[in-house]
Write a structure and sequence with these properties.
- This protein is of the alpha+beta class.
- The protein has a domain of 115 residues: TolA/TonB C-terminal domain, CATH 3.30.2420.10.
- Helix content is 17%, strand content 25%.
- Strands 3, 5, 6, 8 and 9 form a five-stranded mixed sheet that branches. The chain has a two-stranded antiparallel sheet with strand order 1-2. Strands 4-7 form a two-stranded antiparallel ribbon.
- Strand 8 and strand 9 form a beta hairpin.
């Protein structure tokens, strides 16, 4: 061990002796180089506007406002003429209701489901034990059939919407009545999906 320590010190002394004799190179001048990035502007491309195709479809009833319980949603009050007279307006407040779409709170007798179809429980929700509901706005025609359906609210969102929309379309209602006549009406229907 003493031999190893002696060898290390001897080696250090020899290296220091020869280091002094090696020519040292003089320090070089430091040159600064600044690099900048040049940003090239790309030539402007003309953006072509694509007009959507016009779809021809049958006129649909106006949908009720979401979150607002409006009493005049979709009611046709007729049109006024410039000469001060009126067209298609009778003495009642609502005018002729033959073509009007009413809301369930305005009619004398709201629509009632008389033939209910079944709802297919989504397999993923069934597998994971998920329960929920969908609140629908349903346009019930004067003959009791379902014309349009719109999702107003759902929980959990998006899980049961498709199943509820598909199932409610097979329902048939006893039509809503206003002043003894069958009328078209937007009605709300809550569908619960529960595994218990």
């Amino acid at each position: 061990m003493l031999f190893g320590v002696t060898m290390v010190f001897a080696l250090i002394v020899i290296l220091n002796h020869y280091m002094g004799k090696i020519e040292r190179t003089p320090p070089q001048e430091v040159t600064e180089i600044a690099m900048t990035r040049e940003i090239k502007q790309e030539p402007k491309q003309e953006i072509k506007k694509v007009e959507p195709k016009k779809q021809v479809s049958r006129p649909q009833a106006p949908t009720p406002f979401k979150g607002l319980d409006t009493a005049l949603s979709g009611i046709d009050l007729g049109s006024l003429r410039l000469d001060g007279g009126s067209r298609d307006i009778d003495d009642s407040l609502l005018g002729k209701t033959g073509n009007a779409v009413m809301t369930a709170d305005l009619v004398d007798v709201p629509p009632k489901p008389i033939a209910r179809g079944s709802f297919k429980y989504p397999p993923a929700a069934k597998k994971n034990g998920i329960n929920g509901y969908v609140l629908l706005s349903v346009l019930v025609e004067a003959d009791g059939s379902v014309n349009q359906v719109q999702v107003l609210e759902s929980s959990p969102s998006g899980i049961f919407d498709a199943a509820a929309l598909q199932g409610i379309r097979t329902w048939h209602f006893e039509p809503a009545k206003y002043k003894g006549d069958n009328v078209r009406v937007w009605a709300k229907q809550r569908i619960r999906f529960d595994l218990s």
